[in-house]
Design brief:
alpha+beta; 20% helix; 3 helices; elongated
């Protein structure tokens, strides 16, 4: 019941009832990514959309799927023969606002002590 109410009243937890109904009527599943997001396509209009697995965050879409959903390529990643280079890193979602976010030295949120300030700074004076 809780999942139904969340789906009915919120848009950031996966899909809404309208999206579910549209996907059921017109959507053809094209594939899923490693995060569990599902990608659909309407064969008649070539409309493309994603149903997120969890919170709807656009940065969770990997680069291959991003190119497909934005019509930059017509071939979805599961059908593509692309092999990533050894120097390419795996896709990571935007970590801003999470405990895994980057916190540089001197940041107030960084648990490490702030570096001491040397006396080599001279303010500019007009």
């Amino acid at each position: 019941m809780k999942a139904f109410l969340l789906q009915f009243f919120t848009w950031w937890n996966g899909q809404t009832l309208g999206t579910r109904f549209y996907t059921w009527r017109k959507g053809k599943l094209v594939g899923t990514d490693e995060a569990g997001n599902k990608y659909y396509r309407d064969p008649k209009t070539d409309r493309r959309w994603v149903i997120y697995n969890g919170v709807a965050e656009a940065s969770r879409v990997p680069p291959g799927w991003y190119g497909w959903i934005r019509h930059q390529t017509d071939v979805p990643p599961p059908e593509e023969t692309y092999v990533p280079r050894e120097w390419q890193k795996p896709h990571l979602p935007n970590l801003t606002g999470t405990p895994q976010a980057y916190r540089p030295p001197g940041s107030l949120r960084n648990p490490q002590p702030r570096p001491t300030v040397a006396g080599d700074y001279e303010p500019w004076r007009p």
